[in-house]
Design brief:
Elements lengths: L9 H12 L5 E2 L10 E3 L4 E6 L1 H4 L14 H24 L3 E6 H5 L8 H6 L4 E4 L10
Parallel strand pairs: 3-4, 4-5
Antiparallel strand pairs: 1-2, 2-3
Pfam families: Vsr (PF03852)
Keywords: DNA damage, DNA repair, Endonuclease, Hydrolase, Nuclease
Enzyme class: hydrolase
């Protein structure tokens, strides 16, 4: 558990490299905003969260599995994460921010589809999720 990162994860770094290459400029991990968004694009009044499918319970995703041991602990922990995410998203919207949630599985399985992200940034929707690729089946 000590190796779990909250910042600068591989999916987050991939999104940052892509957006910077597309000419978007952003701030990282702003402490003054609810949830410390991974990326903040003030020009577009947009915050981006790059969520891990396991920790944030991406619905229907292959990576959002539940541990087999200490089930009660994990259920409470992961449900708490979901509640906290919703509370923070509500606070951001009330402050006038737009939200884009990018799921880890979308980054893992995206090759050409990253091109959809700039459209979501420049759009007018208050909340967007960047969809993941269809869940992969386990091999074997």
């Amino acid at each position: 558990m000590s190796r779990i990162q909250g910042k600068n994860t591989k999916p987050e770094m991939a999104v940052r490299r892509y957006l910077h290459g597309q000419g978007f400029r952003f701030r990282l991990h702003r402490n003054d905003l609810p949830g410390k968004p991974d990326l903040v694009l003030p020009r577009y009044r947009l915050v981006i969260f790059v969520h891990g499918c396991f920790w944030h319970r991406h619905s229907g995703c292959f990576y959002a599995t539940s541990p087999a041991t200490r089930k009660e602990f994990w259920r409470n922990k992961l449900e708490g994460n979901i509640k906290r995410d919703h509370r923070q998203q509500k606070e951001l919207i009330e402050q006038g921010w737009r939200i884009l949630v990018i799921w880890e599985c979308g980054i893992r399985h995206a090759s050409k589809t990253l091109d959809e992200i700039p459209t979501l940034i420049t759009g007018n929707d208050v909340f967007n999720e960047w969809p993941c690729a269809p869940p992969r089946q386990r091999e074997g």
